[in-house]
Amino acid sequence: MLDGFDFFAMGFVLPHLPADFAAPSEKGYLISAGLLGMAVGAIFVAPLADRYGRRLLILAGLTLNIASMVTTALAPNTAVMLGGRFLTGIGVGIISATMIVVAQEYSSAARRNFAIGIVTVGFPLGSTLAGLTGVSLMSIFGGAWQAMFWVGASVSLLGLVLVAALLPETLTFLLTADKPGAHDKVARIAIKLGLDYTPATAQQPESPTTTALPDPGKPRVLSAELRERTILLWIGYAFLTAAYYFVGTWTPQLIADASGSTQDGAIAGTIISIGSLAGSIVFGLIGLKFLATRIAWMALSLAVVSLVLFTGTMGGPLALVMATALGLAVFVSVSSYTAMAPPMYPALARARGYGLMVGISRIGAIITPILAGYASGSVAPKYIFLAASIPLAISALAALRLWLITRSQFTAELADAAAMHEAARTLDTESRTAVR
After folding, report:
1. Can you tell me the distance from the alpha carbon of 156 to that of 151, in angstroms, rounded to the nearest whole number?
2. Which of its termini does the chain have fewer beta carbons within 10 Å around, N or C?
């Protein structure tokens, strides 16, 4: 949630920046600075979670977010704001890559998609809160954009306190890394979670996807057995995020340009965020029955149709309905890629594999807002929106290929998980019977 608020706050601030503070083309750079920071954080910093632990990296990301939001709020010019947004992006990149790994490692295979859906609901929730807060704060403080970033710094500080107090290291990392004192930490966490733990049985492979653990110092994500899926993840997620961040950040400005009303722009942006919020919940529910790879290409197909219909109206009730459907379908797709990526890698390459996917995907996301900034001065908003359907279609094709090459593996994993769950239920029933 903090990631979503901190990042998308910029999109709602853009229409309220004074003309002498940032030109239209510079506004595109303000968005892309955050995306560039996300790439740096996800590619170069988040993989350290495979070496030093997931919890430490999340705390570091939150601390950086607080400092960067304060810097942005105090920015006297565009250059300083660019630096603040870049640092915010690094923090978001660290947290978004590492938190998903935490959720995945504390989930069973059968409940993994549902758990990821619960966690990822925070990102659109944060962007929705940014939209609602933006409308109210701009009204209360007469367009004082600094208020958005002070709110972001405050809630990030609260998040840092909560994470430091409540979030444990993952059992998968502690057991797989096998650092000194790891088993004592596992025992303490197990007691809190009500789990039975004995060192003799703790280090069994967690799933068929983690039997061969690579050297954490080597880029095993491009090994022969993982290369195709890695490249497909990079391509699919890159084009998906390019469209997602363009729609999420530029919708308020472009709708305001088309309608002449900043309020209409804010409403459209908030509606898309609400659709995204629903998308996480929908993914979590349907993910209990279907593979994430299958959900991805189907949701992306719906997103293309919704975006084209939204472009054809750009106003009125139908546009709002399509905006909701677009936000829902796109974020179902984002959640699908988020859920499918970590299980494709061994435990000690998981943060690296997911972090690289998140980071490399920012290439298109960085370029797209800049191009939109230049295009907004000479191209009609509807044509800019229509162009965003192309990367969504490419991402759908990549997701379809991923589904075809991995469905047998993940179907077998789900079957094994179901069998283990049924065996555990049988054992529990027998134990209760014996007690009686």
Report:
1. 9
2. C
CATH 1.20.1250.20 fits 2-170+225-425, yes or no: yes
Nearest to 348 by CA among 29, 47, 108, 143: 47
pLDDT of residue 74: 93
DSSP calls for 322-391: HHHHHHHHHHHHHHHHHHHSGGGS-GGGHHHHHHHHHHHTHHHHHHHHHHHHHHTTTS-HHHHHHHTHHH
Q: Is 314 left (phi over 0), alpha (psi -120 to 50) or beta?
A: left
410-434 residue pLDDT tens: 777 777 766 766 666 676 666 666 6
Residue 383 CB neighbours (<10 A): 10
Q: Tokens for 393, please give them.
A: 């279609």
Q: DSSP state, 204?
A: S
What is the spatial distance between Cα 35 and Cα 26, in angstroms, rounded to a whole number?
A: 14
Instruction: Give me 62's structure tokens.
Output: 């939150």
Please state the domain extents for the chain. Answer: 2-170+225-425
Categorise residue 169: left if φ over 0, alpha if ψ from -120 to 50, beta otherwise: beta
Return d(Cα 294, Cα 312) in angstroms, integer.
28
Length of the chain: 436
Model confidence over 306-355: pLDDT tens digits? 888 877 776 666 767 777 788 888 888 988 998 899 888 888 888 888 88
Which distant-in-sequence residues (6+ apart) come within 8 Å of 218 by Cβ? none
339: tokens are 């859920």
Dig out the tokens for 364 from the structure.
């298109």
Spatial distance between the Cα atoms of 363 and 347, rounded to a whole number of angstroms: 26
Model pLDDT for residues 280-310, shown as the tens digit of each residue? 788 888 888 888 899 999 999 998 988 888 7
